[in-house]
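Illustration 12: Membrane progestin receptor gamma isoform X1.
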Amino acid sequence: MLSLIKLPRVFTINQVPKVFHEDSIISGYRHPRSSATDCILSLFQLTNETLNIWTHFLPTWYFLWKLVTVVLMQTVWQDSFTWPLVIFLLSCCIYPLASSCAHTFSSMSARARHICFFFDYGALSFYSLGSAIIYSAYVFPDKWVNSFFHQCYIPIAVCNAIISTNMACYSRLGLPFLQYNHDIVKRFPECQSPKFSKCLRVVAFAYPYLFDNIPLFYRVFLCVGEGCTDNDTNILHYNHISLAFLTGFLFATHLPERLAPGSFDYIGHSHQLFHVCGILGTHFQMKAIEQDMVTRRSWLLEHSIPITFSNSVGAALLCVVVNLIIIILYSLPLLSAPVCQEKKCGKGSKKTSSKVCPCC
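Figure caption equivalent — predicted structure in token form:
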């Protein structure tokens, strides 16, 4: 059937605008003015984005199955102890889905690319908050349960998630209406300072992760004696932590493609490995949390902070609302850009140029 469909052609790095360039990826680029249909068809041809899409799209259904199982098999709405698990699993569904959609439709235009990844960043920061909510409920070591830090943990995690989204969005184009608007894109900092932009994005996602995992790091690496919650679950936490750091390493270093540009354009480049390690890490994280939830339930219900709407569902809703406002603010200048200018820049839709369109 697919043999009867004309698949979109792919391009080299010199044939697409700079905003679409990926570090050390030479070929396999889609047309920078692809239609939505072309983007969907590209799922079934080998481009440098194909495996980026599938490595997150398929796991979305696995996490969705886990979420539906929890909702149907447990009395979720009557048992507030289960709420953090539902929020976490929801965030596990959203972040790979947002990522796969961003990678699928990011070649529709330069403006669409930025907006797609704004949503991707928002989903990742929501996942970081989902992790914090579930760590607060089930993972905190016995010594720290009900401590001052425990009481401040969720509010700080909400702030971190919001700052993370803002910082990651800022790393692409700068401040909306000040550094870019519908008339001109100064392209600070991504195109003018790509290394600074990359560092900013790494920090935007690394620091919420490190903060969220403070209680876990203390529990598995530093805590000794009574109250350390030393149980069989810790091996799953070790697996998750190892994969999380490997994920961050791959995202920051662009290995292995940086060692042999052009050799890993389609299969084996760092972003694909980053996706795979991230999903495996999330899987081990989920398994560890489920085990902690079961084995520590009675003790936590007696000694831990009560799980309420405000420190679980309410915190998640606040994060979603504020993240959407941030994404809208960063997207408005791009959405209000005159269509005629972009058409002029993309004149001759079948031709591509390495020159960046100033209105994109």
